[in-house]
Structure formats: structure tokens, C-alpha cells
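Hey, sorry for the delay on this. The queue was backed up all week. Below are the sequences that define the complex (chains, strands and the ligand SMILES where applicable).
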Amino acid sequence: MTPCDTNHSPCIACRQPAVRQLADFGPQPVGHHFLESPEARAGFHPMVLGQCDACGLAQLIQPIPPEKLVPRVDWIRYNEPEAHLDRLVDSLTLLPGLNPASRLLGITYKEDTSLRRFQERGFPNTSRLDMVEDLGITNPCAGVEYVQQRLTPDLVPHLRQRHGTPDLILVRHVIEHTHDTAAFLETFRQWVAPDGYVVFELPDCARGFDLLDYTTFWEDHSLYFVESTFRSTLELHGLAVVDFQRYPGPYEHCLVAITQPTERPLPLPPGEGRGEGRSRSSAHPDTVSVAAGVPPAVEPGVSPGGISAGSMFVDRSERKAPPPSAPPGVSPGGLAPTALSAELARVQAFSTGFAPRREAIRRQLMDWRRAGPIGLFGAGHQASTFLNLLRVADLIDFVIDDHPRKAGRFMPGCGLPILSSADALKRGAKVWLSTVGAESERKIVERNRAFVEGGGIFASIYPTQPGHLFTPLP
Ligand SMILES: [Zn+2]
């Protein structure tokens, strides 16, 4: 990690030129670029943590472009927490104005189970965006990294022609991937019914920051929200938070914001599809030009994500959009001064805590390794961050994962082999570090009684877990 500098970059979320660099972790591999051989090379990208002095939001200073981030295989899937969805959907069905005739829409596959719950509760009018027909994304491996880029106000006429004007839009775990948050949020502000709702969900990074859990970093996430910055970002961009819910999880909490569009103007440059006047009524014209909003048919092989020259999906990095104006009494980024100070201090402490935490982890691993090999269970992105960002791969002997497509491959960056648990048992490791949640961990321990009964230690890499590596369970 190199020392900070004083350059300020534009904020992904509030657009103020106020992002201060806090820590440069150096080039990091894309965590799902599993390798066929230890010598093969994953995609690398700079991982630089910054924080916006205007809105307090922690963010990557150079988010990874979608074409570098897109999975190389089509079997990568991310499971978001779902235990809270029954309660959440129950509460959403009670929102004023929502009824069985309401039009409900989900953005990605992450919304499918919520939409099913709505149907089970008597709300049959559900639909979900189609990657090709709605968003022009033809790469079968593409996911949220492209969806966040495609959802811009230009697309609203096409989306409205295809899906009408939704009364409720579900957006689970996408905002934290955005590279132009203002345009992303403006899309929903314009599209949803004037008295409708947009429901956003994302992971709460507060515990990760406070407990110095550096696996909070994930190259797919450009933004790292806590409750205050989540609320203020939505409000700043014309989405009034009418309800806010927090669902505790084993190692990260889910934050849910239920919003309604306001008429507050957002200065976007011409061509963003904002229309004249920006009132609610003008943002929802009765008639739309279908042809103007139809995504182009993208030929396979044009680019990894299907972007072609002349596409309506223009390169957002070229735009020089002015920042939105915050209401009186808050910072230019939309946060009250006391909340802003608290966030600046929190993320600064997280940044300065990196080196000592890394040293403490290395000491613990070196101590254990004197007794025998160390395995790391779970070849997910948290494992990649733990091995590569914290630079401890030299103290780990192998990674364990029973996913049939992962076992036999090698971790990106460090090149550690991925073994099935049956093969890992033969290696005689004394310690298995876990990168999975408590529930999965219990099942793994059950399935591998021989390891535990033989004196093996099972310890979590997460400080939120009871059996953290500094306090392993007996
Ligand atoms: Zn900002």
C-alpha cells in the first residue's frame, strides 16, 4: 500500500470533484477469473480506495470497466441474502396505493424470488428486464457489471414501451456496482409512476469498516455504502426515502430503502433523455417514441459486453455532467455535517487499520503453519480478496471448494490450487480457514468430521463470526 496523495477525483455518486485517495492496494486480480494453470493470468486492475469529502461515500477511484469485469465463463452466479425477503415483500404489499392491479418490475435475476413472492400474495402483474431485448446485452456471461451501465435515462422510452410505467421497481444489489450513480438513479426517477415506488437494496459496509474486515472490498463494487450515505445519495438524486429497513445478516446487514420520485431537478447534460421541464408529469409522457429508445441489435463478438460503435449506449466517461445541488443545511454531497464527519473518520480509520491488521493475520498464520499446511475453504471473491489484497497467499497451501467447475482450477492472482474437500483431507492440513457464512460453515464441519476430530482447527476469516481466526472455536 502506498501513501495517500492529495489529488481529488470526481465522485461516482455525487459528482463533486472531492474524492480523496486513502489507500492504493496495487493491481488486484478479478476474483472470478479462475485459472486453468498456475501460470495463466487473470485480469488485473488497480485497487485504490478513495472517499468523497462532499458526500462521505467510500469508493474505488478507478472502477473496473465492465469489459474487464465480465466473467469468462457462464456458470458464475452470486447469491444474495434472501432470508428477509418474506418480511420485506409483506411490508411492500402494504404500501399506500399498491394493489393487485399494480405493475411490479424487477431489474435482474436477483429479483426473481421477490417477484414470485408478490405473485403468491396476489400481485400477478410482475415482469423482469430481459438482458437482450431490454438492455441489448448479448454476452451470456454478462451480469450486473453491464446492467448498471445500460440503465440510463436514454433507455426510459424503450423500457416504458416494453414494460409500461411500473408502480414498483425492485433493484437489489446493483447501486453499489454503478459507475455513474446519478444517471442510474435518474432512470428510475423518470420511469416509475409518479406516485410509485423504487425499492433499493444493498449491503451495509458499516460493520466491515468498523471491524477492519478488508474482504469488504470486492472489485465488482465501485461504492461502499452505510445507512447515512445510502439515504443521502438517493435523496440527492431526487428519490425521497419514505421507508428504510435494515435486515441483520451473519456477516453483513442488508439495507433496504423504499423511495418515491420527487420533482427536484437533476442537472444532466442534454441527450440524457431528461425531457423538458423535469416535472413529474413531463418525466412520464403519455406517448413515447419507440424507435428512439430501442437498443440496437448487437452482433456477437463485437465486444465482450456487446457494445458496438454508434450504439446508443455511449461511453459515460466522456460526459462532463455537473453535480446536482444539495438542499440547504447539508454538504454539497447531501450529508449533514455531523454525519459527514462521522463517515470521514470511519473510513479513514478503516484505511489506516489495514497494515496492522494484515500483520496480525500474518503472525497468526505463521504460527499455525509451523504445525502443518493451511487450507482456505471457499473459492469466492472474499477468498480472492483475502489472499491477494491482504497478501497472505504465501502462508496458505491450497483453497478448498466442492464446486465441480472450480475444483481443479487455480485462484486468480496468487495461483493457489483449488481442491475438492476429499482431496484436501488427504493433504493433512491442521487449519482450514473458512470464507463462507456461519450456516454453510456448520454444514462443512458436519461433512468433514474426520478433520475436526483429528484436531483440525476451523476458523473464519470474518471478524463478525464467532470463530474468527483470532479467536478460533475449540
Ligand atoms: Zn460524493
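The longest strand covers residues 19-29.

I'll add it to the shared folder too.

S.
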